[in-house]
Amino acid sequence: MTLTCEELLQKHPQAWKEATVHSFLEQCKLGTIKEEQFNTWLVQDYLFVVEFTRMVARVLTAAPVRDFDVILGGLSALKDELNWFREKAAERNLDFLDAHRQETCMEYCTYLYSLNGMPYALQATALWAIEYAYNQGWQLPGEMPAPYQEFAQRWGNPGFTEYVKLLAKQADMALEMSSENIQHQAEQVFLNVARLEKDFWQMAFNAG
Ligand code: HMH
Predict the structure, then answer these.
(1) 33: domain CATH number?
(2) Of 22, 25, 45, 111, which is best to mutate to test ligand 1, by the most ligand atoms within 8 angstroms of its C-beta?
């Protein structure tokens, strides 16, 4: 029996729901999120994405060549995303330069680093789960009012959804070639990502 991304979702619906459905996103949808909460998320997510970009670069070094296209596409999208974050911050007069990572953000970034050197199947599972969490999180509430719709679109758009499906395929293929022990570890990776995602929303929601 081989573990797949789909089975991880079916085995842990509660953990995944908590990772992707949060008052933070619901209040973006309602337009009632406070500026301080949203700006905290924006700054902390930028700091997260900087480290996430480094992680994706490391995943590339562990990947089989057949997976290069998708991962390089992801890195190229991250180039645009980092510039977009800087634009959004400038519009809101936020300064990334003197921003510090909050403890929850730091914990997530430390976790990203800890994937370094792990078997590719585990890194591919983490990459898929991290991207799918935002794809679903921003997509599930449906159309959002301005200015949040732009954010919902970034991770909820059809192209990003396709990218996440390809990441799942790659993770599935790597898991298929892995031992039962590695597959068991992949389940822990999935649960760690789900918990860190939930905590990240809560960190932003707690601001202000
Ligand atoms: C916390 N998880 C978090 N931030 C993101 N930007 C993504 C996932 C997806 O890129």
Answers:
(1) 1.20.910.10
(2) 45
Contact 34, 186 (CB under 8 A): no
Q: CA 88 to CA 49: how far, in whole Å?
A: 14
152 has pLDDT over 80? yes
Q: Which domain holds residue 72?
A: 5-206
Asked whether the beta carbons of 81 and 177 are under 8 A apart, the reply is no
pTM over 0.85? The answer is yes
Rounded to the nearest angstrom, the distance between the alpha carbon of 179 and the centre of ligand 1 is 29
Q: Which amino acid is at 105?
A: C
Q: What is the pLDDT of residues 100-146, one digit of tens each?
A: 999 999 999 999 999 999 999 999 999 999 999 999 999 999 999 99
Q: Based on the structure, what is the number of domains in the chain?
A: 1
CB of 128 within 8 A of CB of 164? yes
Q: How far is the CA of 134 from the centre of ligand 1 (A)?
A: 6
Give the CA distances from residue 66 to residues 76, 77, 198, in Å, rounded to whole numbers and listed in that order: 17, 19, 32
Name residues whose C-beta falls within 8 Å of residue 172's C-beta, 6 or more positions apart in sequence: 2, 4, 5
